[in-house]
Description:
Protein name: KsdD-like steroid dehydrogenase
Keywords: Flavoprotein, Oxidoreductase
Strand content: 15-25%
Helix content: 25-40%
Pfam families: FAD_binding_2
Radius of gyration: 23 Å
GO molecular function: steroid dehydrogenase activity, acting on the CH-CH group of donors
Number of domains: 2
CATH superfamily of the largest domain: FAD/NAD(P)-binding domain
Number of strands: 22
Structural class: alpha+beta
CATH architecture of the largest domain: 3-Layer(bba) Sandwich
Domain FAD-dependent oxidoreductase 2 FAD-binding: 4-538
Shape: globular
Amino acid sequence: MDADVIVIGAGLAGLVATHELTRRGKKVAVIDQENEANLGGQAFWSFGGLFLVDTPEQRRLGIKDSLELAWNDWSGSAAFDRLDDEDIWAAKWARSYVEFAAGEKRAYLTDLGIEFMPTVGWAERGDLRANGHGNSVPRFHIAWGTGTGVVEPFVDSARQSAADKLVTFYHRHRVDELIFTNGVTTGIKGAVLAPDDAVRGAPSNRDEVGEFELSAQAVIITTGGIGGNHEMVRRYWPERMGPPPASMITGVPAYVDGRMLDIANDSGVRLVNRDRMWHYTEGVNNWDPIWPKHAIRIIPGPSSMWFDALGRRLPAPYLPGYDTLGTLRYLRTTPDIANYDHSWYILTQKIIKKEFALSGSEQNPDITGKSRKAVLQERFLNKDATGPVEAFKSHGADFVVADNLEELVEKMNALTDEPLLDPANIRAQIEARDLQVVNPFCKDVQVQGIRNARRALGDRLGRVAAPHRILDPKAGPLIAAKLHILTRKTLGGIQTDLDSRALGIDGQPIPGLYAAGEVAGFGGGGVHGYNALEGTFLGGCVFSGRAAGRAAAQDI
């Protein structure tokens, strides 16, 4: 045996599994097709939001949360409807995960040195139904250090275990085959790839310079999803979401290619819920890209006005920060706009300063660098938006700025193949909305939502601008952002039981084979069901990776 356990994938789920294994004295071989610079995988690049329930941070802000409320939100969002088949284990994982989020999750992370920002964000506010999709209260806990800070203790643990001879890293090794002996998983085969010193996230070569084979008592698959493979995204794009976009931009590195899902499927592993995905409608092209079609998601507050490609304001609940997949479905299934792959935000400088955040650790250097002084300066004392947001406003191909609406619309029309927007029509819609902010009560659902959000202390202090007229010159200049569909996550994958054991096509565990993280739908083959509550992807990697590592250590 080359190791007790082989972990395929050096992202967050794989590193958590490795941490749990080495704590129990097991020897681990960590396999990854990228170089050492990419330890931590996709999670390194994330904003670092985590779904937590009834925390000290929430209570200090006067937020009353509970397991009961969180489960009502999760089950309403997931809408599990395949409980006799593909959702059997997903629903069990969902309940277990929400209990973890309301219980020991925070302590598990803080014991590793992970801290949280004092304010709690309100992501994915939902579809406006009490029993429907969305978070009823703010639950988006941002890790101090962003995703980089979440990954750090697990990277440190793996490196220390390597120094202690418990971990061996096999970088630039690509797995092409699972090995089974008498029905038991006993190893892997694949290709050794040529050395490549590409920086973290950048594409690396796929030149084969040799072959390898490793054996172990167990194998854990933690290779991520499909977001970097647009062909695979289109292959499994669900019919209910309309036609797949002709043009998409990419929120994850190219190595998130879905290869291991197909390899597992060809090996008799059961894959479920492959039609469930999580892609964003608020993507913008990165003016300083690292990987192909590198895009950044705008994490919006609730105040920007959202227009379709023809210049019509999107109806509720398709508002900024509310219902991600509902908005995507609306844009892809409404007949006269389904052929367009973009939409628009129109906002003011006052809104962009307080409400715009950009996904990605590199887009939030103050938080990633754990500098309280920089956070105070960038987010509270600065008269402008944060440096990265202002850089996108100045250099981003999808941003235009103007002092008046007619000039703004002219610049917006210049970003499309033909002029689709009528400035008079857009002015009429904005003026109608602006009339609604005069009183503290109104009939406009979005303005109601802004006022509701500002009743949450964290939103009022640092996330939601005071209601104001979009066309008020004092709030300007006016800004428009052209929004694209950004690929991100698969919500389905390898079906697993609650010990992260991979199931075969007969629904029974395959001896010696486990799966965790996105490749397993973050647990059970789809813990989120049809909708995610945002900030939960890192937590799902932690929870499922922990389960896989502990179960494998016990079973071997």
